[in-house]
Design brief:
The structure holds 2 protein chains of 2 kinds.
Chain A lengths: L2 H4 L4 E8 L6 E7 L3 E6 L6 E6 L3 E9 L2 E8 L4 E7 L1 H14 L29 H9 L5 E4 L15 E4 L4 H10 L7 E6 L4 E5 L13 H8 L8 E5 L3 H6 L16 E5 L5 H16 L5 H11 L1 H20 L4 E5 L6 H13 L6 H14 L4 H4 L16 H15 L8 H12 L11 H6 L2 H4 L3 H5 L2 H4 L27 H4 L7 H43 L1
Parallel strand pairs in A: 11-14, 12-13, 12-14
Antiparallel strand pairs in A: 1-2, 1-7, 2-3, 3-4, 5-6, 6-7, 8-9, 10-11
Chain B lengths: L2 H4 L4 E9 L2 E10 L3 E6 L9 E7 L3 E9 L2 E8 L4 E7 L1 H15 L28 H9 L5 E4 L15 E4 L4 H9 L8 E6 L4 E5 L13 H11 L5 E5 L3 H9 L13 E5 L5 H15 L6 H11 L1 H20 L4 E5 L6 H13 L6 H14 L4 H4 L16 H15 L8 H12 L15
Parallel strand pairs in B: 11-14, 12-13, 12-14
Antiparallel strand pairs in B: 1-2, 1-7, 2-3, 3-4, 5-6, 6-7, 8-9, 10-11
Helix pairs in contact in B: 4-5, 7-8, 9-10, 9-13, 10-11, 10-13, 13-14
Classes of the chains: A alpha+beta, B alpha+beta.
Amino acid sequence: MEFAELIKTPRVDNVVLHRPFYPAVEGTLCLTGHHLILSSRRQDDAEELWLLHSNIDSIEKRFVGSLGTIIIKCKDLRIIQLDIPGMEECLNIASSIEALSTLDSVTLMYPFFYRPMFEVVEDGWRSFLPEQEFELLSSLTDEWRLSCINKEFSVCPSYPAVVIVPKSIDDEALRKVAVFRHGSRFPVLSYYHKKNGMVMMRSSQPLTGTNGRRCKEDEKLINATLRAGKRGYIIDTRSLNVAQQARAKGGGFEQEAHYPQWRRIHKSIERFNILQESLIKLVEACNDQSHNMDRWLSKLEASNWLTHIKEILTAACLAAQCIDREGASVLVHGTEGTDSTLQVTSLAQIILDPRCRTIRGFESLVVREWLQAGHPFQQRCAQSAYSNSKQKWEAPVFLLFLDCVWQILRQFPCSFEFNEHFLIMLFEHAYASQFGTFLGNNENERSKLKLQQKTMSLWSWVNRPQELNKYKNPLFEANSLVIWPSVAPQSLQLWEGVFLRWNRSSKFLDEAYEEMVTLIEYNKQLKAKVNALRRQLAELETDDRMQENA
Amino acid sequence: MEFAELIKTSRVESVVLAGAGLPPARGTLCITSHHLLLSSRPGGAGAAATVELWLLIRNVDAVEKRLCGSSGTITLRCKDLRVLQLEIPGMEECLNVASSIEALSSVDSLMMMYPFFYRPQGLRLEDGWHLFPLERFFQCIAAQTNQWRLSAVNKDFSTCPTYPPALIVPAAVDDGALRKAARFRHGGRFPVLSYYHRKNGTVMLRSGQPLTGPNRKRCPEDELLLAAALAQAARGFVVDTRSLQAAKQARMGGGGTEPKSAYPRWKRLHRPLERGRPLQESFVRLVDACNDASLSMDRWLSRLESSRWLSHVKAALSTACLAAQCLEREEACVLVHGAEGTDTTLLVTALAQLILDPSCRTLAGFQGLLEREWIQAGHPFHVRCARSAYSHARLKQEAPLFLLFLDCVWQLGRQFPRSLEFGERLLLALFDSAYASSYGTFLGNNEKER
């Protein structure tokens, strides 16, 4: 199938573009296989707009006489308007965009066609391999091993090819455990806490069913993480009710009789299908121009978005407390182990591990706990808040995680090496990107699609110094603390940088930020100068003394 | 009356202080006429004492006691919204301390307040009181136009008891006319100049409501005053901070609005702003909601909404923007008034000046603005800030108008981070000082009392 077949009209002149914060501009609209481009004659064919079709959530057409208007609502929450002269051109453009933005096959997406314009110094695909992670781990402890049981993805289709499991458990046992867990997601290591040797594992729900099935190998596996005589905690991201009801469908929870050394805590986090509705309501509230304070606050409340933030952060804090304060190991799971489970394990690591707050550490965290761990990005980020089509698997699970990270960043402004823009960039690329990093639902799919060979990794681009500078936090001071965020509702705020980004110009805030960066840089330069002068003074004093003694 | 009579126990050892996000501290509690002091010796006896608490008793809004066995806990809720706890060994001492604090914090007589006793080292007592004379503010206007003059008609406060002694009025209107206009306005607060917009020569005036009453009285001097104020401007807007209904009802009580027939070039706009008891209740509900960290997100948001505080902030900023737009964009003059002209009126005129005039956003300019538009303009600080959000006492005329103003200024600072020369800390210090201070700036209700 050729893209050209889908493009009814590739080019229209005299189109007027309306977008947030810029005055309307007239130019030529071009449709390519992957992009919507508007170039004006303003300054040598300046490109005013270069929009990926995959970033388009929905479009609306309106006609006034012979002038057609297309309103494009994007997954990054921008709303753009194109005024197109000529009804036929307008209809053609609209149906072309619709066809191009709803392509089914992954291999037709832009990352497979993208040729980078920059020199690739680091291959992002090879930057965060599980073997590298494991090497770090083995320098701290020898109780774990790297298992290749899943190297054909035959044991667990949503796990990576290699996983970290307790040394005392062999591959045969793992096979049995995989049968006992939903989607074969047997418990694996998520995080090792250097301070006290405690660990966090994650999995999916045990398939106990109504008969109370048990699996001795599963029990042995998680018990292997316990110290003699100590208890562990199982954090179930479903309410007790929901967990009990799961038994009727073959699922369930770890029964006390079979797991006597483990204490189960239920910290309910909303399931993914509810979250999409929440996002839609929130975005609708943010776009409400009626300027009514009461309506704003009640719509914000009705969206429940901040409630989800609070739930997730609370569960993550609990996991972190069990590990750091109680000195106990933790197993986290929900139903499938691909959504709320990953939110909890990754946020707990932000709280506990200063390395996850550095740029590379955070990238490694995203790669480990989200990409390799099998969060179904392709399904979850197929559509965003503006989509009109029926939604099935879409949910802003990853965006909620990024929002939670932002909440912690706001409460601890000096503890993160990256700034808010970094998080926003990840949000954007998860939904639409020229890079292949977020394509596919798990390593299995990525391997079959040969993403590593055929597409560029986001990390190759982001980690270049000229790019990375935009994302560095000027206030960052490396510390080795465990940071405990406040989850009181008064402490959690709406992430304006994402949700109000297109409603209100951030010009003055940006200027203040630039000023801050300049001041900090200037301060550093002055300090360096002071140190140089001090050294000079010391040298002169030594010279003086030598002369006196001579 | 001697302060000593009110102090039952002036000193208690081994008291534990907790609260306000600080780790608990044990030390000796002392009660003086104006302060509560707690000093500890963290290094043990012989080491230098650390002052853990130095609290103006005037800052105490409410005192609660809880007795448990042979010791008691006193919870102090302060006007600056801090909540402190003192654990006092000995039931009698606890009761004595509590009643001493209650008595001292209820002293209402102005002359007994701490500023009259405060003798700081290194500061001369006259500094600050004369930093922002109205004469200097007037010079800037006189340099631009000769349409205005400085009147001393109120120099003995006989024309208007809540106005300052010097006022800026149209040059074409003499003092005799001013006196007559004063009789036509609530509290004698005839229209005076609040701000001159250099860019286009338009002005903002403020006043109290006209006393038209049910018989639709008129006052030619008041009409003359407003006509003279308009001068070359095509028209003016009266921004009435009461709803149309409230303004109409005011007629029955002797007040009212400027009728169109008498003020043909002035168009009236109603922008109701909350004041008085409902505003104080809004404040109390907000503080209540903020203090409960155990709330669910839903409950927090719905209590935030039902407190309506943010609605009041929005309404105040909207009205100030409206006034500013009239001056800057419509090139029309503005007269702002509510009923008394001492609360929401000042809120609007002060905020409008921050929007319009960059010099008000400098540190010195902002202080000058506070002096002119709040202190000298006669906002009744003493009665408005007698009690804050925690008080159990029967409230009389308390209302957090000044806090609402500071909140609006903070909103501006947040949206335009590089446009204010001062930061949040100044606003917090001003909030604290309005309720309890070592300094006399916010004492009294108007210049006459001062």
